[in-house]
Design brief:
mainly alpha, disordered N terminus, 5-stranded parallel β-sheet, 44 helices, AAA_16, P-loop_NTPase
Length: 882
């Protein structure tokens, strides 16, 4: 183990670590051989004192003069400080940047990752922690290429903050593409909850992950003789091993004490080793510290409270002594091998020592010192967030000022993308407790802090806030709207509707009640289980009819009316006119932007979806492109960005850009998976769209894989999907040859949508698939279904709707009538913005008419769309043409 006594004997070599050092040597050599070499990850784990830090020092030595090496370590008292370890790690690079250079180098990630790294002021919004994590991955990836070859060392990762571990886990999964070596050391079992899960992810990605073992008796004997001399006899060496259990740290410390005491390394002295060893950790170390004097103990306590990179000035202030007194005490601590370092800062020699000193501080004294430390940190200008780790340790004492400091700290944590740190501050504020007039506000802020990351947590806290007196009417309305949104995201739409209705019933007529009515209509509009859909549509039409869009409540109702009219298949021109009235100069109104919190994100999705299905794909694409950009700029990397990618991908699908659609939709599902696993509405939304796209491409087996992955089968969640999920599922089953199941699904779809009065044949094209499937066995019913669908399509009135209806009727007809209907379908679909549907009509027209020219045009369109199955069908038609 590479550890020795400052000013004492020779440094001791690493013992029984040949395999680990060889792995490190190979990894460093591979990294330095070529810029194109993939990166590596080494993980060393083991109990306290087993030699992890010594091994990390050896890796640093191996990489010295061959690579750039940056190192950081976690601290037991610093686990609650977000981004603490990653900031340590990147400090050599960050301090080299001027503000302008940092902005230029980080590019689009500056506003998102910059605040987390402490090199940029936070914006006014609350970035999604997943986006911040992605930003940190991107930033370190750039630094890795700039500083190649780069070695990153993270010691005591079990004490790293959760935000750093989230970055490290994500970064570890990217190392195949990056020229960087990451080496991580941690104690197994010392992390809990999410931090433990993240460490497991890091370990799973390691090549290799090594558990360090205690030294054998032979290795301990070798270490003993290397330290004390070859004359150390066998019984003495054996007793060193027995006393320390082969723990390298304890062995080195014990041997240093043997040297200090000038104990003879012989069997006659072996009995004294146990007493000496007790001073290396725990109570024995504390007793040794106390022998150094009261002032030295006070400084050691202050250092333990402060954690790592300990400022002598701050420690002196906390200990209540002058600078010169603190320096004399620090020198005595260094001589006793308790701390290292100098004027630039102090550090405990080993984490075991830091833990023992911290644990030895009487509880009342410890909390008082944390309180003074918080005051000192705040006074130094570092802000409430920096002081919050100390505030968390203060004993609750009904202190209103402390509550306000913790609320401010939570705000600062949220601004850099650390909602878990904000949650801890607000939960601690509740323990104080807050004054009655503040209590509900703290609960409300706690619910808002988790809105982007944990719908279930948000629900619990917002319900408590609403049940507690103290919120103004404006905040109550906002809390209810946020609660309903969280309930919907948690697939509890019915409860969300109830919460809105209950609050609206308490309010008089006015803007607040109108907002709640709009939100209630919105959630009803996507509720698949609504009992009186036609009645709701009539009420909404009556309410929205006279509105001009003079404020956002009216604009919201116009959007809801447009979406409802679109799903019901009412005239598309009226749908577009309603959408246009909800905009201001063709753009989203202030307060209705994609990242504005007052109105739910789904409202804007309804607006874009209404444009998309009314054949105004240019406007829909513009809106959803803006949505993706706005979410990314604001640092929203969770469910909102997932939905933005999904709807943009589906616009690509409607345009016939099937490859782009598939890429965007797969990205949507990737983002949704990071929010939560299972069958959340956002998963089903994107899955429905992706399956529809894959079927259009002719990739039914891939579509089946997606369906299985996301449980795309009854029972579905209680939300209306775009496109209709049941219609997509029926088409998938038919494509897979499961005809009976497909027919049953489409029949059930027809019954459900008819009961709700939803007749949009583009949004829910079940009629066309059902008619074609029934054509052979029940041609009359098939024709009736197609004829009814054409009536609905002509009522809606878009080129796409009418063209698709004509194409279905053509498929059911024969001879000249079929050819004539196909010709009309082609004419309508050529005028529509939906290139894939146009391509299908061309190919089917060519096959029906035996036209090589039409088949060639259809083939060209199919290839440009990425519709592989359709292209193959056209090629077969051309191969058989005369």
């Amino acid at each position: 183990m590479t550890q020795g006594r400052p000013g004492g004997g020779a440094w001791s070599p690493l013992w029984e670590r040949d395999e680990e050092t060889r792995a490190a040597e190979r990894a460093v050599s591979a990294l330095c051989s070529d810029r194109t070499t993939e990166g590596g990850l080494l993980v060393f784990s083991g109990e306290a004192g087993i030699g992890k830090t010594a091994l990390m020092a050896e890796v640093r030595r191996i990489a010295h003069d061959r690579a750039t090496v940056w190192a950081a370590r976690g601290g037991e008292t610093l686990q609650s400080v977000p981004f603490n370890v990653v900031r340590q790690l990147l400090q050599p690079a960050l301090v080299a940047f001027s503000p302008d250079e940092a902005r230029a180098y980080l590019g689009d990630w500056y506003e998102i990752a910059g605040p987390a790294l402490g090199i940029a002021e936070p914006g006014s919004g609350r970035p999604d922690p997943q986006a911040v994590c992605d930003g940190l991955v991107a930033v370190v990836s750039r630094l890795a290429r700039l500083h190649w070859p780069l070695v990153l060392l993270v010691d005591d990762a079990h004490w790293a903050d959760q935000e750093t571990l989230a970055w490290l886990a994500a970064f570890a999964e990217r190392l195949d593409d990056l020229p960087v070596l990451v080496v991580v050391a941690h104690r197994p079992g010392d992390a809990e909850g999410e931090r433990a899960r993240l460490l497991d992810r890091i370990g799973e990605a390691a090549r290799p992950a090594t558990v360090l073992r205690a030294l054998t008796p032979d290795a301990t004997a070798g270490l003993t003789r290397a330290t004390l001399g070859e004359h150390a006899d066998d019984p003495f060496c054996r007793e060193v091993w027995a006393v320390t259990g082969g723990n390298p740290y304890e062995s080195v410390e014990l041997l240093a004490k043997v040297q200090d005491s000038e104990l003879e390394p012989a069997e006659s002295s072996a009995a004294e080793l146990r007493a000496l060893n007790r001073t290396a950790r725990g109570r024995g170390l504390v007793a040794r510290l106390e022998e150094l004097g009261t002032d030295v103990v006070r400084l050691a306590w202050a250092a333990a409270i402060l954690g790592s990179a300990i400022s002598v000035d701050l420690a002196a202030s906390l200990a209540g002594m002058r600078r010169d007194e603190a320096e004399r005490c620090a020198e005595r601590l260094r001589a006793a091998r308790i701390v290292t370092g100098g004027e630039e800062g102090l550090e405990f020699v080993h984490p075991l020592i830091a833990s023992a000193v911290y644990d030895s501080i009487p509880l009342a004294t410890r909390t008082a010192m944390h309180g003074r430390a918080a005051w000192a940190v705040t006074r130094s200008g570092l802000g409430a967030a920096a002081a919050s780790r100390h505030l968390l340790e203060v004993i609750p004492d009904d202190d209103p000022e402390l509550v306000e400091q913790l609320r401010q700290a939570a705000t600062e944590h949220l601004a850099v993308g650390a909602p878990d740190a904000a949650r801890r501050c607000l939960e601690r504020a509740l323990d104080e407790p807050p004054r009655p007039d503040v209590h509900a506000h703290v609960l409300y802020e706690l619910g808002c802090a988790t809105l982007l990351t944990s719908p279930a947590t948000t629900i619990r806290h917002l319900r408590q806030a609403l049940a507690t007196r103290g919120l103004s009417q404006e905040l109550r309305v906002d809390a209810v709207c946020r609660l309903s949104q969280a309930l919907v995201h948690n697939d509890q739409l019915g409860e969300g509707l109830h919460a809105i209705a209950e609050e609206a019933a308490r309010l008089p007529e006015g803007p607040a009640r109108l907002r709640l009515q709009a939100v209630h209509f919105m959630w009803e509009g996507i509720h698949a289980g609504e009992e009186d859909s036609p009645g709701r549509s009539r009420r909404l039409a009556a309410l929205a009819g006279p509105l001009t869009g003079r404020d956002n409540a009216e604009r919201a109702l116009l959007i809801l009316r447009a979406f409802d009219a679109m799903t019901r298949g009412e005239n598309a021109e009226e749908v577009v006119e309603l959408c246009d009235r909800a905009l201001v100069n063709g753009r989203l109104a202030p307060g209705l932007g994609w990242t504005d919190a007052e109105w739910s994100f789904e409202l804007r999705l309804m607006l874009g979806g209404s444009y998309a299905f009314a054949d105004r794909l240019d406007r829909a694409e513009s809106l959803f492109t803006e949505a993706v950009k706005a979410c990314e700029t604001a640092g929203w990397g969770g469910g909102h960005l997932a939905l933005a990618h999904a709807f943009l991908g589906y616009v690509y699908r409607r345009r016939g850009r099937l490859r782009d659609a598939e890429k965007s939709l797969r990205e949507s599902l990737r983002l949704a998976d990071r929010v939560g696993q299972g069958q959340l509405p956002m998963h089903w939304e994107a899955a429905s769209m992706l399956i529809d796209t894959l079927l259009a491409r002719g990739h039914a087996e891939q579509a089946e894989t997606v369906a299985e992955r996301y449980g795309f089968a009854p029972p579905s969640a209680s939300t209306i999907y775009v496109p209709d999920a049941m219609s997509v599922r029926g088409r998938l089953l038919l494509a897979l040859g499961r005809r009976e199941e497909g027919l049953n699904e489409l029949e059930a779809t027809a019954k459900a949508l008819t009961a709700r009065g939803q007749y949009n044949t583009v949004l829910a094209p079940w009629a066309y698939d059902l008619a074609r499937a029934l054509a052979a066995e029940d041609p009359r019913r098939a024709a009736d279904i197609a004829a009814d669908a054409r009536v609905q399509a002509e009522r809606f009135g878009t080129d796409t709707a009418i063209g698709e209806a004509l194409r279905c009727e053509a498929a059911l007809a024969s001879g000249a009538r079929s050819t004539a209907l196909y010709a009309k379908a082609v004419a309508y679909l050529e005028a529509s913005p939906c290139a894939y549907e146009h391509a299908v009509a061309r190919v089917e027209y060519g096959l029906a008419a035996g036209s090589v020219e039409e088949l060639q045009r259809g083939l060209a369109l199919a290839r440009s769309c990425g519709a592989d199955g359709l292209a193959a069908r056209a090629e077969r038609g051309l191969a058989g043409a005369p």
